[in-house]
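Q:
My hope is that you can spare some time for a protein that puzzles me. I hope you can help me see how the letters and the tokens relate. Thank you; the sequence and its tokens follow:
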Amino acid sequence: MSAGLAGAGAAAPAVAGTGLVAGAGAAGASGALAGQMSAGASAAAGTGGAAMPAGGGPGPAVGGANDLWLSPTGSDTNPGTQAMPLASLAIAVQRIQPGATLWVGAGTYKLSQTVPLSRSGEADKPLRIFAQVGERPVLDFAAQSRGSSSARGLQITGNYWHLRGIEVMNAGDNCIHISGAHNTIEQVITHGCSDTGIQITANSSEAGDDTRAAHNTVLNCDSYENYDQANAGENADGFAAKLYIGPGNVFRGCRAWNNADDGWDLFASDDVVVIENCWAMSNGKIGPNQNNTNGDGNGFKLGGAAQAGDANMGGAVHVVKNCASFENRACGFVRNNNTQTPQLSMCGGRGDGKGLLCSLMNGGGSLTVSMTAAEAIAAKRDADGNLPAVH
């Protein structure tokens, strides 16, 4: 295989041309960060972490005749209408048609099996899974076994999926794993995963195929408190696009905090990844009773050396713009033996244990940062999910 707006206020009107229904997010709170889990208030589930705007997406006025509805109180014998919703996500995603939306109602959906998103939409007709307007539904995979790659939450092997406004927690591996292409993950929260919260990686059998794990966008998402106990914290990041990936993957407006390993990990990826307007806080600092002897604790880990003899692994000039790191245990931004030099511009931070820049230079000016990690975690997003300006 070969981006933040000023803070949230009152609800804004619908955004022209998008059908977005505005709704202000509730404020999150954070507890002590040094060696402890963050203790913020979740937007809907009380699970910890800073609040995000309620989910939503296109309002009811743009709903189509083929749309489906899901509810914890629904039934799979129902037709899937708003009045008679379905109950099982796995069944609903097999029934949704390209161009239609699966509206996920409020509440917690307790799941024990990976939900595969293996079908594909089209460029102008994506397959959508959206939280109902003003809601933040939770997909809880706590019943899965821990530490097995077969125990992922949502596994996206298809193309042209658009997820918005949901919360995914407690998966036995990644909460969301993406090997497909042209997918959008928007205003999604992942946490408590036994590996990275949102990870983009193709299978080794797909190495060299630029149509796999390619052109995915992760927009205005939060990922926190992910911890892989089986590996003593070695692998669980907030976000990752690593190993075998294709071109065109972008992270924009995302936050990662209190993850066992790193906020972002681009280890051994040989295609350029773009990270814009993102924040990484207190990574490597996890619960006092969790063993994190193998976790690194970098904010942004930007690559790694190629595997010997593997032409599809390692060495890419990743692009990082207007990003900030706060009080990570190790480096704010680290090259990590990347054989190419990532391009940083207008990045900044404070309080990282091993310094802001490790084997990297910040070109095009730097970002002045006075915020603490606790303030960055608690910062409100605006009605569209954008982060406030760094201060």
Notes: Helices lie at 89-95, 373-378.
